[in-house]
């Protein structure tokens, strides 16, 4: 039962984060159970977990509704990302031996994003975007910041997937913005990074809310 519940949880969560099921969409426990070949009970348990993570709103005797990304949530996430990532880069600049290997990693992730953009693969692009920003915080080495940033991951992946689907032509621009962020880190320029990150996040914010 526990394995079935975990499977239902992960499958449903992946659908939400990838944008396969959208905010406001009703999910039926019976239909999900049939799709996965499990009983209704593990699906109900999975839905309870996802409701606790604010990804689903339970509807008695019907299933659950996918919680849309609200304008308030979007603003909160982007503000915290700006603060955490800028602080991470400021810390990195105090230990310059980390800069060169991080710049190489980020450059590879930018190339991966470019491939996703060329293929129009919003899901791949969103995953590479998440990895790009997460590595900046991870390499900085602040464990408290890492845990807090990790708690934002689900929300920011949904936002980026929504942005990529809403405006596929913008993917190439996002790749260029990531390139400028990586360059600012490579040059140990905290002010340039913060300016570029703010513009990058504000542009994403506008696309998500349009």
Automatic annotation (TrEMBL):
SUPFAM superfamilies: GntR ligand-binding domain-like, Winged helix' DNA-binding domain. The lineage of its organism: Bacteria, Bacillati, Actinomycetota, Actinomycetes, Mycobacteriales. This is GntR family transcriptional regulator. InterPro entries: GntR_C, TF_FadR/GntR_C, Tscrpt_reg_HTH_GntR, WH-like_DNA-bd_sf, WH_DNA-bd_sf. It comes from Mycolicibacterium brisbanense. GO terms for molecular function: DNA binding; DNA-binding transcription factor activity. Pfam families: FCD, GntR. PANTHER family: TRANSCRIPTIONAL REGULATOR, GNTR FAMILY, UXU OPERON TRANSCRIPTIONAL REGULATOR. SMART domains: FCD (SM00895), HTH_GNTR (SM00345).
